[in-house]
Amino acid sequence: MAQVLMVVTGADSITLADGSAHATGFWVEELVELHRGLTTAGHRVDISTPNGVRPTADPGSLEGEASADWRVYLASLDDELARPRVLADIRAGEYDAIVLPGGHGPMVDLAHDADLGRLLVDAADRDAVVGVLCHGPAGLLSAVRPDGTFAFAGRRIAVFTDDEERQGGLGESSPYLVESSLRGLGVVVEPGEPWSSTVVADGTLISGQNPQSSLATAARLVQELAER
Q1: How far apart are the C-alpha atoms of 187 and 194, rounded to whole Å?
Q2: Residue 112 is part of a domain; what is its CATH number?
Q3: Among residues 129, 111, 80, 86, which one has the least CA distance to residue 185?
Q4: Which domain holds residue 174?
Q5: What is the pLDDT of residues 27-55, one digit of tens each?
Q6: How is the beta sheet containing 97-100 ordered, strand by strand?
Q7: Is the pLDDT score of 67 beyond 90?
Q8: Residue 136 and residue 108: Cα distance in Å, rounded?
Q9: How many domains are contained in the chain?
Q10: Which of 16, 50, 99, 189 would give a disulfide with 173, using CB separation of 3.0 to 4.6 Å?
Q11: pTM of the predicted model, to two decimals?
Q12: pLDDT of the residue at 64
């Protein structure tokens, strides 16, 4: 059984390009399916946030009939979500895997969180499993070494694409584009068709493109952990 740290955004709003605030948080489907897939396979998952704040679900991720099942599962995690681990308290090497679900929230806090960066650099150095989904790869932006180099430069990933952001995300209101930002740091983005289930595995770095990739990303993470 692996010990998995799920790092969840603590942000509940994002400042748009025009300076206005837009409600956000974590994307429920992504958190639920990653958590459910990993725990069903027998792995332990601990939830952590910056400063140990209770994370907020993105309101848009609770819309539609499909959300009923996710709401039920989310309710079963209420105690864990109410008392997440403080990200700053986590030691390097403490977990076998680090997993980042999306929602636009990670663009706000995880992208610049020094403690997440510290843990991700350590994970990259010891070849631990790192899983990122949709906007979760924004958290990888924090993984800058003391010498200024980016820990995931040259790695292949899937991420919520610029096209998807324009078609069904924040569009031109987005304060920045995660795909473009990662490309600028030397990441090799391998996009699938917009809204397709697309997973990229580059060694121990497992990434999914969008909410439609949630189940497949969880399955690939389970496979990678089983092979270690």
Answers
A1: 19
A2: 3.40.50.880
A3: 111
A4: 3-226
A5: 999 999 999 999 999 999 999 999 999 99
A6: 85-86, 44-49, 3-7, 97-100, 129-133, 205-208, 199-202
A7: no
A8: 11
A9: 1
A10: 16
A11: 0.97
A12: 80
